[in-house]
Each structure stands twice: as structure tokens, then as C-alpha cells.
Design brief:
Layout (H helix, E strand, L loop, with lengths): L1 H23 L5 E9 L2 E8 L2 E7 L1 H7 L2 E11 L2 E18 L2 E21 L2 E19 L5 E21 L4 E10 L7 E12 L4 E16 L6 E17 L1
């Protein structure tokens, strides 16, 4: 139910990005829409009830086991104020073998961020908002015979605070960086995120971005049979195209 609502929200953000310029562009609004590829690894541990398993996926493994992924960023700004949204959806599977023990963890994840920003200095923005996580996780642990399995779903919202930095290196190149911390025990126990980009503007309306992104989170709820835990990170290079309108 909530996952479907988040999907609709992401579609709404994209549609808004296409429709808003016609009504607000004359009033000084600027918009950026950035589909991108995150060549990420996923590493950590997951637990459902009494069953736990390690997650160890490099980018090559993710390409092999990925069923589908969507990654999109949208920004609207006017003067010193901005709103930025980012969405990541992926459906993947990790298999880890240690001796005779084989652990399979499959995860469908949604990570959607929305924040407001204020430029308080020439190159600096303060940001505050929320990051939504939804994870549908299945774990199966076996040792040559019938295994133990469990499946669970959890979703939560982390409050987020951070800063962003941007500076022009030339008439075509820009360096961008963002760092934030989140959770504080209100959603995740703790989460942190960093993203750096070099942006090359090859036309008036489009640019190519290359960078690196890391997102780390530690979430746990329930106990015993109702336990759900996911302590992991996504980390890797990012490449995307930004359209300005």
C-alpha cells in the first residue's frame, strides 16, 4: 500500500517537473531533471525474526541479479530557495556461501528523499527534509539440506539535515558535494549520506555528471519473531544526465 503511494509520488514529481515550467518559468523558477545510474555495491546484514544473513553484492553481482532499477533526481529553485527530490528503486538478490552454509537474501527497496534548501552563502546551501525507506526482504539459510527462511517488510521515515556545496570550475565544469545525517533513532538508529559530482555542461539545457555516492543506514524494529533489522550501505560511482528547463 505505502510502496504504491511512493511510486505515485515519484511519478507525480516527474510530471510536475515537466508541467511547472509552463506556469512558473516566467516567475524565475529553474528546474533540473536527472536520470542517473548508480554503479553501487550493497553490503551489510539483514535479520527477520530468528533468521539473519550477510549481504555482499559488488556492482557486477548487482548487474547479474538485478531485475529492475529506477534512479531519478529532481530540483526546483527560485532565488536562494530550492526543493530537491531523489528516488532509488531496485529489486535484487545476494548469495553468500561460507563453508557449507549458503545464505540468500533478496531485497526490493525504495529510498525516496525530499528536502528543502536555502542558500546561505554564495556556494553553500543548508538542507532539511526526510528520507523514506521501504524494504521487502527475504532470507534463506541452508547447509546442504532444508534451510530456514523468513520474509518481512518494513518502511520508515528518517528526518534529514545537511549541507550542500557547489562551485564553478570553468564555464562548463561545476563541482558539487552534499553531506547529510539522518534517523537519530526516530526512523533508522542512524544514517549518513555523501554525494560528490563533477558536472560538465555540454549544451544550454543539458549536462553530464560523474561522481561518487555513499548511503549508510542501520534500522531495527521488533524483537523475537517480529524482529526486522537491516544494517547496510550502498556505495559506488554515479553517472547521469541533467536536463535544465
Amino acid at each position: 500500500m505505502i510502496g504504491a503511494l511512493v511510486r505515485r509520488l515519484l511519478v507525480t514529481i516527474v510530471c510536475a517537473g515537466m508541467l511547472l515550467p509552463a506556469t512558473l518559468g516566467a516567475e524565475g523558477w529553474n528546474f533540473r531533471l536527472s536520470p542517473y545510474l548508480w554503479a553501487t555495491s550493497l553490503k551489510g546484514t539483514a535479520g527477520i525474526g530468528p533468521v539473519s544473513g550477510d549481504i555482499d553484492l559488488g556492482f557486477g553481482d548487482i548487474l547479474d541479479d538485478l531485475e529492475m532499477a529506477l534512479m531519478l533526481n529532481f530540483r526546483a529553485e527560485k532565488g536562494p530557495w530550492a526543493i530537491q527530490a531523489d528516488g532509488v528503486w531496485a529489486d535484487l538478490e545476494s548469495e553468500v556461501t561460507s563453508g557449507l552454509v549458503r545464505t540468500v537474501v533478496d531485497t526490493e527497496m525504495w529510498i525516496v528523499s525530499l528536502n528543502g534548501r536555502y542558500r546561505f552563502a554564495e556556494n553553500w546551501e543548508a538542507l532539511a527534509g526526510a528520507r523514506y525507506f521501504r524494504q521487502d526482504v527475504g532470507i534463506n539459510v541452508s547447509a546442504g539440506g532444508p534451510g530456514a527462511g523468513a520474509r518481512g517488510t518494513a518502511d520508515w521515515i528518517d528526518p534529514v539535515i545537511g549541507v550542500a556545496f557547489s562551485t564553478s570550475l570553468s564555464d562548463k565544469w561545476t563541482f558539487q558535494a552534499q553531506g547529510d545525517i539522518a534517523g537519530f533513532g526516530l526512523g533508522s538508529d542512524f544514517s549518513w549520506h555523501a554525494w560528490v559530482n563533477f558536472d560538465w555542461r555540454f549544451s544550454k539545457v543539458a549536462s553530464l555528471a560523474l561522481g561518487y555516492r555513499h548511503l549508510d543506514w542501520d534500522y531495527e524494529e521488533g524483537a523475537g519473531a517480529t524482529r526486522f533489522s537491516y544494517d547496510a550501505y550502498l556505495s559506488g560511482p554515479v553517472a547521469g544526465v541533467t536536463f535544465r528547463f
